[in-house]
Amino acid sequence: MTVSSLAVEQKPCFQFKANFLPCTVLQILYYNDAILEQQLSSTLSNSPSFFTDLPVIIDLDKMKSQDAFDFAKLKEILLANKMILVGVRGGNEAQHLSAVQAGLPLLPASKLSVTEVKPTKKEEPVVRLTKLVTTPIRSGMQVYAKDSDLIVTAAVSQGAELLADGNIHVYGPLRGRVLAGVQGNLQARIYCSVLDAELVSIAGYYLTKEDMLKSPLSEGMKQIFLDNEQVRIEVL
Amino acid sequence: MTKIIVITSGKGGVGKTTTSASFAVGLAGRGFKTAVIDFDIGLRNLDLIMGCERRVVYDFVNVIRKEASLNQALIRDKHIKDLFILPASQTRDKDALTLEGVAAVLEELSKTFDYIVCDSPAGIERGAQLAMYFADSAIVVTNPEVSSVRDSDRMLGLLSSKTKRAEEGQPPLTEHLLLTRYSPKRVARGDMLSLADVNEILAIPLLGVIPESQAVLRASNSGDPVILDKESDAGQAYLDAVGRFLGEEIPHRFIEEKGNWLKRIFNLKERETV
């Protein structure tokens, strides 16, 4: 049997698989065996089963400026507390050397160590721009101002429709349908100079042209708003 | 630069084809090489109004489908040598028109013609949208009654959004209002909307008012566009409108009852400027 035929017949005896093992990072803030041993055992006594056979990485990110210390002793303490040591990361060269001497593998440093705590961005005040329309809105056209107010400086024809999540202002003749607060904003209002609309609505409450003709209003700027689930029109 | 004019209205029967024929004749009569295209595929009428129905061999759809060349399909007008008619197909429907096909025909016409008049079908569907898509100017034909005015308003909305100029963010096309079948007598009686009423709703520049006239029906039946009937009020009104379209200052006529119209125009003009 030749070597090549051997290679063909043999089944692969291993395969690489990507995996993400849950692993706890033990970050050393300063080193003192006695204190470490004491604090560790008191922490562990609260929930001993959680820490049993827990894979642990020793992180020396906060220890960079300090000297090497006794890794053999540290290893002993952790093993005594039934943790499984995976390796060491961070720290300086002297620390790395003594870690290797104690038989601890070095792991690549955490990417997070580069990005220290970022200053949180100050929240910008949210300014929602009002939608402005300056050209006539013709029959069949629909204009919707999402999350904002709507201002129209031209005529709104019969059969046209204005919608806004906020307030609506119309400075040309208003002859179409106009619906403010369509997402349910009860505070939304409609302002117009010439009110000849087919329908006005605030948050779903509405008046038709027929309703409006029943109580004719005098000339002038009108304000349309919701008062106790009733759409009211008021001359300003 | 070739100018493409669409004659549109939304509503049917208001005088689009009559206007297309008279406008095309008027422009060609001024010495501009003019083509007039019937976009009303399936309801061919322009050839009748222009009096060339017996000479139709190929049509617009044949050209779009490359079954005939443009020169084969164009019919020379019997009155004016600079005027050509591209008739619609009577046997197809409006889906036979494609955007690419219309674009190709207009582009080829643009090489030799000064004005291309597109006679739009009624409605707001494909035929009407293609007729307006490439336009530089729109003449909105409206009758003085509410449904026509509302349909015109709808067309104006489409003109400002569904044209090549609008979609490509170019300067908008110029809009002109042509009020047809106007009867000052009936306006005075209150059974017809007045020019001021229409103006208030549509608010676009007035190109002209064509009075209700027996001459229009007579012209349609005889196949001679009414603009050629220079004795008639409607014919004169179209001549005026063509002049205004070309930038001439011509006072409006036929908008008040005969007798004191001059005085009233003056009042109207004042009202318009307010």
Descriptive key words:
heterodimer; A: 236 residues; alpha/beta; Alpha-Beta Plaits; Pectate Lyase C-like; 6-stranded mixed beta sheet; 5-stranded mixed beta sheet; 21% helix; 28% strand; rod-shaped; B: 274 residues; 13 helices; 8 strands
Helical amount among residues of chain B, as a percent range?
A: 40-55%
Percent of sequence in beta strands of chain B: 15-25%
Helix/strand class of chain A = alpha/beta
Q: What assembly state would you assign to the polypeptide chains in this entry?
A: heterodimer
Radius of gyration of chain B, in Å, reads 18 Å
The count of DSSP E runs of length 2 or more, i.e. the number of strands of chain B, is 8
- With strands numbered from the N-terminus, the spatial order across the biggest sheet of chain B is 3-4-2-5-1-6-7-8
Mean model confidence by pLDDT of chain A = 83
End-to-end CA span of chain A: 104 Å
The SSE string of chain A, one letter per element, is HEHHEHEHEEEEEEEEEHEE
The fold-level CATH name of the largest domain in chain A is: Pectate Lyase C-like
Q: What form of chain A results from the Cα inertia axes?
A: rod-shaped
Helix content of chain A: 10-25%
The biggest sheet of chain B, with number of strands, parallel, antiparallel or mixed sense and barrel status, is: 8 strands, mixed
Q: Please report the number of helical segments of chain B.
A: 13
Task: Note poorly predicted spans of chain B.
Answer: none
Give an account of the 3D structure.
The complex is a heterodimer of chains A (236) and B (274). Chain A is an alpha/beta fold and 236 residues long. Chain A has two domains: 24-107, 2-Layer Sandwich (Alpha-Beta Plaits); 126-235, Pectate Lyase C-like (3 Solenoid), CATH 2.160.20.70. In chain A, 21% of the residues lie in helices and 28% in strands. Chain A has helices at 3-9, 33-46, 48-51, 71-80, 93-101, 209-214, and strands at residues 24-27, 55-59, 84-89, 131-133, 142-145, 150-152, 161-164, 168-174, 177-180, 190-195, 199-202, 205-208, 222-227, 230-235. In chain A, strands 4-6-8-10-13-14 form a six-stranded mixed β-sheet, with no helix packed on it. In chain A, strands 5-7-9-11-12 form a five-stranded mixed β-sheet. In chain A, strand 2, helix 4 and strand 3 (84-89) form a beta-alpha-beta unit. The longest helix of chain A has 14 residues, at 33-46. The radius of gyration of chain A is 37 Å and the shape is rod-shaped. The model of chain A has no long low-confidence stretch (mean pLDDT 83). Chain B is an alpha/beta fold and 274 residues long. Chain B has helices at 16-29, 46-49, 60-64, 70-73, 99-110, 126-133, 146-159, 164-167, 184-189, 195-202, 214-222, 233-245, 261-273, and strands at residues 3-8, 34-38, 75-76, 83-86, 115-119, 137-142, 174-182, 206-211. An eight-stranded mixed β-sheet of chain B has the order 3-4-2-5-1-6-7-8, with helices on both faces. In chain B, helix 1 crosses helix 12 (233-245). The two termini of chain B are 35 Å apart. At the A-B interface, loops of A face helix 7 of B.
